[in-house]
Amino acid sequence: MSQGTLFGNGQTRAILPVGLVKAFKLDIKLEPKDSAEHVKNFPLKKVPAFIGPHGFKVHEVIAVLYYLVKLHDENSPLLGKTFEEKTQVLQYLSFATSDFMTAVSTAIGGILGRVPFNKKAVQEAIHEVDQYTELLEKRLVNYTYLVGERLTVADLFFATCFFRPFTLWYGSQWRKEHKVLLRWFNTVTKSEYIEYFFKDLKLADTPITHPEHKKEKKKGGEKKQQQQSKKQKQKQAAPPAQPKKPKHPLEALGKSSIPIDELKRYYSNHETREESLPWFWNEFWDPKEWSLYKVAYKYNDELKMVFMSNNLIGGFFARLSASTKYLFGCMVVCGEDNHNGIVGAFLVRGQEYKPAFDVAPDWESYEFTKLDPTKPEDKEFVNDSWAWDKPLEIDGVKKEVADGKVFK
């Protein structure tokens, strides 16, 4: 009897789960993302995702890895041998899926053209990846592997996370200067679990940190025709110059009477309740120029650890960087580990939220509700979201603020 179906074949996050199925010779069917069966069983289209023969379902890569390894061997050393090692394996898996991959995703989103290219955002993301890589390398100076002295899923999964960095911006010169990390990467990727994917991998020679714009090759036979066409065009009257389109949709609104940078400075340098909020309502707030929105994460039931939820906010803010001149706000994590949610309040240039937020590819994961500060409850929500000193409502329940971030 089949042991189930694994969805995500061909996706970067599923490299290791697919490799485990292959190496363990599990009787598990491999399916691509967004297949009819995948969408039917996992409406959020998460990968990797697994469904067992009796309807058991699980998604999120850490959970899927844990299940597949345990399915093969209840006491597999791949999950760590001692209690301490097992804890460290979870630590590195969590670090990889949250902090590390959030930064990597931001960088590759711009480089590969998945989101509008923002040079500053990409450079900051790569710098963040560099910092995390440096931490790993310090560990590997004295140890062969990340946990103990034997291979674990911590090494295997983290190695797959370096797929894009090594094929995009960690070029040959960088690799010469980071022999310790390269030694670990080469050792891990030659293991039976992920060699199938990495054996023919071509690493970057020269760093790629911006989108490649390919020019179409012009056929030689077209040259004469193009020259004639050019002469004809020169004889025609030049068309009137067209006005340049604004770089950002909200540029068309012009500058506000008080620059938003002034609000951001004031908020950063003064007590929130006592000074910043009164100044905002009395000196800055202009409903003709600005609007206020409640921004709430749609999938709180999927959130686990508080720090991971806060990292999710950080990734969202990084992808919003193109709208820095048109937004200010806070988002907070309310609740505790395994029982938390994300909510916040944003000041938005203009009256519509979409032009400011759709620069981030994951903006549709949030629900936007326009606020009316003439209503006491709406004004109070803005104050509490920006002050972090009172509980906020998450899915109908008031919860204390555990952490958060300021978009500025």
TrEMBL record:
Transmembrane portions of the chain: none
Record key words, sorted: Elongation factor, Protein biosynthesis
The GST C-terminal domain, residue ranges: 82-208
Protein name (database record): Elongation factor 1-gamma 1
A molecular-function term among this protein's GO annotations: translation elongation factor activity
Superkingdom of the source species: Eukaryota
A Gene Ontology term for the protein's cellular component: nucleus
InterPro entries: EF-GSTs, EF1B_G_C, EF1B_G_C_sf, Glutathione-S-Trfase_C-like, Glutathione-S-Trfase_C_sf, Glutathione_S-Trfase, Glutathione_S-Trfase_N, GST_C
Region spans: Disordered: 211-252
EF-1-gamma C-terminal domain span: 246-408
UniProt pathway: Protein biosynthesis; polypeptide chain elongation
